[in-house]
Design goal:
Length: 280
């Protein structure tokens, strides 16, 4: 590509990153609200309605709704559903593994983040391990971005972490990954969760990326349901999905969709985050 790849990545000014932070902070508050509402008996459609109402009440817009015809504000993926589950009449049950993915637009700037919860009790130890390792894999990827020269180092770090911690017990959802984010939800570059031949573009200030490991218990086989969205693991295992939108700035990383900007989780790894441009 004659080294032109980087020119296709949208770089944001500090003022634009402040708007992305407003979008990300609202989204983190929507996720906090959903975590409080999650309980046995609630339907995934009810959670979706709560998220849409809160986003609109804050003058923002859901970005999944209508995206390539997607019919909801959230993707809610339960147990063997890995990603892109469509909210509906399904009632959550004790012990379900529930991945909630959402995003919004504030003044034209997109955010995208996912968390996985286990509903109530009992929690199967293998599910607790799955959810915790997927979240830690996300933070390993974010930490790698802090010192990376190339975007491909994120996937290498996620792959190495999962291999070291889980060996063969967990598989990546192959063919899916993260992405650049900004004036659209899905932008250049791709942010894979494993090593690829392409080392990716150079990491430069102004770059904003959505990093999103998706892990499955056992083999990584999957299929898409006839609804054209739902991705289901077919090897008998359950799945988890964690995602943050992250900005690279001159002063370090800012995890846009985490309340504290990533300060606590990155400090554990010896990394300082950028000052938060938005008072929360
Ligand atoms: N966060 C998801 C992703 O980046 C977005 C889901 S696709 C949608 O893959 F259509 F639901 F928006
Ligand atoms: Co995403």
């Amino acid at each position: 590509m004659l080294g032109l790849g980087r020119s296709r990545v949208e770089l944001k000014t500090p003022e634009q990153i402040a708007l992305m932070r407003r979008s990300g902070l609202l989204l983190s508050q929507v996720h906090d609200m959903l975590a409080r509402e999650l309980r046995p008996g609630i339907t995934t459609a009810q959670l979706d309605a709560l998220a849409e109402e809160m986003i609109r009440d804050h003058g923002a817009t859901p970005n999944f709704l209508g995206y390539q015809g997607y019919p909801a504000t959230l993707c809610i993926s339960v147990n063997e559903v890995v990603v892109h589950g469509i909210p509906g009449a399904q009632e959550l049950r004790e012990g379900d593994v529930v991945s909630i993915d959402g995003g919004c637009i504030v003044e034209g700037w997109h955010s995208d983040a996912a968390r996985t919860h286990i509903v109530g009790q009992p929690r199967r130890p293998a599910d607790v391990e799955l959810v915790e390792l997927t979240e830690r894999a996300l933070w390993e990827g974010i930490a790698a971005l802090a010192t990376a020269r190339r975007v491909g180092e994120i996937g290498a770090a996620v792959e190495d972490f999962v291999e070291a911690e889980a060996g063969e017990t967990l598989s990546h959802l192959e063919g899916f990954g993260g992405h650049g984010i900004g004036t659209a939800m899905h932008m250049e570059p791709d942010v894979m969760n494993y090593r690829t031949r392409d080392r990716g573009p150079k990491v430069v200030p102004g770059m904003c990326l959505a990093i999103e490991p998706m892990l499955i218990q056992g083999p990584g086989d999957w299929e898409q349901l006839d609804d054209g969205w739902t991705i289901v693991a077919t090897g008998g295992g359950r799945a988890a999905h964690w995602e943050h939108s992250v900005a690279v700035t001159e002063q370090g990383l800012l995890v846009l969709t985490e309340r504290d900007g990533g300060a606590a989780r990155l400090a554990e790894r010896g990394i300082r985050t950028a000052p938060d441009p938005v008072a929360s």
